[in-house]
Design goal:
CATH architecture: Orthogonal Bundle
Distance between the termini: 37 Å
Order of helices and strands: HHHHHHHHHHH
Oligomer: single chain
CATH superfamily: MetI-like
Mean pLDDT: 87
Strand content: under 5%
Low-confidence stretches: none
Helix content: over 70%
Shape: globular
Radius of gyration: 24 Å
Number of strands: 0
Structural class: mainly alpha
Largest sheet: none
Length: 273
């Protein structure tokens, strides 16, 4: 039996075990499809649409759209800054996280020194990506003033660990012949990095970076709850004060923003390849 078949069986077993646990914990699958549940869904959708409300829905007001677009711009700024922080941090550190450059056959370090540098850098990647963005944001707002910068730093730290791991694996798979040719001709470490490693790594690294931008733009709403900026913070306020038509407007703007980022990312990836 192949890997795919075993994976399917494991997935089915996990799903079955999960539902047994839910049932044992007092939950019932039938509650999801009950009339009361769907009545609640219907009522919430009507609230979002402003059905039966005395006031004009927020998505019918030009001033509300202008405010929502300003918040969308803040959210976009946060995502771009976070992507830049993560990308630059990863690009600087991935030579120290690739086994072939630290303690492999392309290393200029000593065996022990290279292994130590490799282990510390990889451990840093693990720690930064193991802590969710929301937890980073909760800690960072105690250091930085709440706003776009605090949210961007929280997102950047988490995604630094993700991009660093991916970038290091790209470096470990490079063609070593250009690097060996440069080294045999007397090139230094910096020259080897710029002329032997980066030309092979950058196209795929930029592709991963753009994919992470798509992930980051979807996470900014959650981080904004804590960082007090962008669409996420306004979501929190509007939900707290039961302004459901305002929530609907923010959802519309957020979906448009994510769609535009996806289109931009796809176009940039085609240029990078």
């Amino acid at each position: 039996m192949g890997f795919v078949a075993w994976s399917l069986m494991a997935w089915m077993a996990l799903g079955f075990t999960g539902w047994i646990w839910v049932y044992h914990d007092g939950g019932r699958l039938g509650d999801v499809f009950s009339g009361a549940a769907w009545a609640g869904v219907s009522g919430f959708v009507q609230d979002l649409a402003g059905s039966g409300g005395a006031n004009t829905p927020a998505f019918m007001k030009g001033a509300e759209w202008e405010n929502a677009l300003d918040l969308a711009l803040e959210t976009l700024q946060m995502s771009v800054l976070a992507t830049a922080i993560a990308g630059i941090g990863a690009l600087v550190t991935i030579p120290f996280a690739a086994s072939n450059l630290t303690h492999g056959d392309l290393s200029r370090f000593g065996r022990v020194t290279g292994a130590t540098v490799f282990g510390v850098t990889r451990l840093t990647y693990i720690l930064t990506r193991a802590v969710p963005e929301l937890v980073w944001a909760l800690m960072i707002v105690f250091v930085l003033q709440a706003g776009v910068l605090a949210g961007a730093v929280a997102l950047g730290i988490h995604n630094f660990g993700v991009l660093g791991r991916l970038g290091a694996e790209i470096v470990e798979d490079i063609d070593t012949r250009p690097v060996r040719a440069l080294r045999s001709s007397g090139a230094g470490n910096v020259q080897i990095m710029f002329y032997g490693v980066l030309p092979q790594v950058l196209p795929q690294f930029i592709t991963f970076l753009l994919y992470r931008w798509e992930v980051i733009i979807r996470t900014t709403a959650v981080v904004g709850f804590v960082a007090a900026s962008g669409l996420g913070y306004q979501f929190r306020l509007d939900f707290a004060f039961f302004r459901y038509t305002d929530v609907a407007l923010l959802l519309i703007v957020y979906i448009i923003l994510v769609w535009m980022v996806d289109l931009a990312s796809a176009g940039l990836r085609r240029l990078a390849q």
